[in-house]
Amino acid sequence: MSLREGPTGRITAVSSDSSHRFSKPNRASITLLAGLGVAGDAHAGVTVQHRSRVARDPSQPNLRQVHLLAGELLAELAAAGHPVAPGELGENVTTAGIDLLALPTGTLLRLGPEAVVEVTGLRNPCLQIDAFQEGLLRRVVGRAPDGSVVRRAGIMGVVRTGGTLRPGDPVGVELPAGEHRPLERV
After folding, report:
1. Do the strands 66-70 and 93-96 form a parallel or antiparallel pair, or are they unpaired?
2. Is 73 helix (H, G, I), strand (E, B) or coil?
3. Alpha helices in the chain (DSSP H)
4. Given this model, what pLDDT does residue 1 score?
5. Per-residue pLDDT tens digits for 59-77
6. Helix, strand, coil tally for the chain in percent (to 5)
7. Residue 51: what pLDDT?
């Protein structure tokens, strides 16, 4: 597949948690494992690890190995009266300088010196967001003028090449060739 270079940004925070909690504590570094996700994170695995998805069909492939969130969203939420720190919405990687939601399906994100994550789709926020902070769900899920649902709580991906990530590491974007498929919820 031929790829084109896109904009670059940086990692501002990395987070992981071995338990299924809503928020993830920040770490000095995290390690991505090819085909699995974040080492030691409760959501790592070849098959789905999110509780609601496991209940439906535990054999589904895990298209949600890594959750990425734009730091710009956190700044926007804080300005609207919802202070949220990196990792508190459950993301593994917080970025700056990249419009993650505008990326097409299949984009390759080069994270740090080695890791590559393929973007699979949008995070589908759930009611846990309002349990974390009342009124936050309506800030990250809305409606477009045509009535379609707009999800802004980050993107999901699968690890194609492993590596260690730290705050300050660069993020490179390689867009897939051909017609771009917009992100859908995964």
Report:
1. parallel
2. helix
3. 51-56, 71-79, 128-132, 137-140
4. 33
5. 999 999 999 999 999 999 9
6. 15, 35, 50
7. 79
